[in-house]
Amino acid sequence: MTRPVLSEAEIRGLALRAGLEPTEGRLAELAEGARHLAVMLTDLDRDLDRSVESAVIFSAERSR
Amino acid sequence: MNTVPNFPTIAEASDLIARGEITPVDLTQHCLSRIAAQDGVLHSFLTFTGEQALQAAEQATAEIRSGQYKGPLHGIPVGIKDIFDTAGVRTTGNSRLLEERVPSETAESVKRLEAAGAIVLGKLTTHEFALGGPSFDLPWPPARNPWDKARFTGGSSSGTGAAVAAGLVLAGTGSDTGGSIRNPAAYCGITGLKPTYGLVSRRGVIPLAFSLDHVGPMAWNAEDCAIMLQAMAGFDARDPGSASVAIPDYRQALATGVAGLRVGIIRHFHEEDRAAEPAMLAAFEDAVHVLTALGCKVSEARLSPLSQYAACGNVIMLSEAYAIHEQDLRDRPDMYGYACRARMSIGAMITAADYLRAQRRRTELVAETAAAMHQFDVLLTVTAASEAPEITQVGPFGSYEKPLYTMPANVTGSPTISVCCGYSANGLPLGMQMSGRPFDDATVLRLAHAYETATAWRGKRPQVM
């Protein structure tokens, strides 16, 4: 699954929530970062089973 | 004053000191002259402590003369990356946020170097908070590569890479969260060891990402890294990540041969996942032949794609870094340089679920690498895709555009060294990595030493104009 790049509105919302002043320059920086983040998260997801079942197995293995 | 040979290694200089042929004062003055002549171009130092260094050198000389020789670091001039606290000496992380900060306590690893007799010549430049760079909007300019001052040094331990390569110091400290020791080691043609996670205390070092940060030595060769590591390594109850393990004699371990050592080549990292440039690939294959000739049993190794290690490491690093800098990024963002602020701000967009997913993926990647290490003693890959690029060509998001070959060892915590494995057509150094089992730093140093001894690469030094 390819992770989508965050939209301008989502980035603005996250910036406000994080308390980052949403100036034009700051939003542009975040937009560039969001593009790279989408690629990273897509790579991260590639071989990771995100199902609850796999989490149960993972949890059991970790506590072994 | 006795004459100091040009570009002495720690091993050579300490032999001369032990034999009384040169003194720590001779050696320190030699380095101070080189700094005066070259650092106006290289910008490797951001705080210079020449006077204190000379005083310490005089004391070391007196100690040695009175029979109190401490060992191979006694009287050896070193530099300290400016994210390591030094009591009474400004420690800034090359950031306006900490421009006037003077710590009251020295970082544990630096204390240990000083206790072994090392002479600190000053603080070496770094990318801001060991993350953003190269940058031209920080309090101090970026370091320049001694092999070609138009080239990038690599980072973030940029000043240490430049100063060691140019012979301004005999060794220095670096920190490594995604490759910050090994990358400048490769681009500057020196040897840099990222030790096993927890082997060297990080107390008193400005953190970037708690679970990925490592501290280690950078020097001209593996033998000097072994000497530095001997002093730096060891349990520190005040570093929560510190490991209580026995510390072997790293230098003595170099004497054991490497015949029979099982070396796994992770070719897919630099051939399929992120193709390195032809000159780099050719140098790497030549190095594989050298290891084979030394008696190593070389075969292919296969792990998950490089991009997955990189993604896992980057998501963790950016989340943890953001957690540290959240308040300042919110309240005074303009105090950061552009590159550091832009990179760190990505952390504001990472969810807790993604951070935990990255930690879970990390567990799998650690297990995968550990399984591979049942078959191999050392894994081999390139350090960088090419020679050092032009410094003006490195963008703020460069390390996210293409996966770093260095990040896997931060994810796994494995001891990994970068050694010079040749030179490009432009005469610039090329680097490769050797990675071992956790806490088997001695084997990594041993293989690196055997390789360096079998090749001529350590005989060439940059000529800084």
Distance between the termini of chain B: 26 Å
* Biggest interface found: A-B, 29 and 32 residues
Total of DSSP H or I helical runs spanning 4+ residues of chain A: 3
By secondary-structure content and strand pairing, the structural class of chain B works out as: alpha/beta
User: Would you identify the CATH H-level superfamily of chain B?
Assistant: Amidase signature (AS) domain
Total DSSP E strands of chain A: 0
Which regions of chain A are unreliable across 5 or more consecutive residues at pLDDT < 50?
none
Strand order of the largest sheet of chain B: 1-3-2-4-6-5-10-11-9-7-8
Low-confidence stretches of chain B: none
Q: What's the CATH first level of chain B?
A: Alpha Beta
Number of domains of chain A: 1
Residue-averaged pLDDT of chain A: 87
Keywords (chain B): Ligase
Enzyme class (chain B): ligase
EC number (chain B): 6.3.5.7
GO molecular function (chain B): glutaminyl-tRNA synthase (glutamine-hydrolyzing) activity
What does this structure look like?
The complex is a heterodimer of chains A (64) and B (465). With 64 residues, chain A is mainly α. Chain A is 69% helix and 0% strand. Chain A has three helices and no strands. Chain A has helices at residues 8-18, 24-45, 52-62. In chain A, helix 1 (8-18) crosses helix 2 (24-45). Chain B contains 16 helices and eleven strands. Chain B has helices at residues 10-18, 24-42, 50-65, 108-115, 158-165, 182-188, 222-232, 250-253, 267-273, 278-293, 306-331, 338-344, 352-372, 398-401, 407-412, 441-454; strands spanning 45-48, 77-81, 119-124, 171-176, 191-194, 214-219, 262-265, 297-300, 378-382, 416-423, 429-436. The relative contact order of chain B is 0.14. The interface between A and B is medium-sized, with 29 and 32 residues. Chain B: This is Asp-tRNA(Asn)/Glu-tRNA(Gln) amidotransferase subunit GatA. Chain B: Its EC number is 6.3.5.7. Chain B: Keywords: Ligase. Chain B: Pfam families: Amidase.
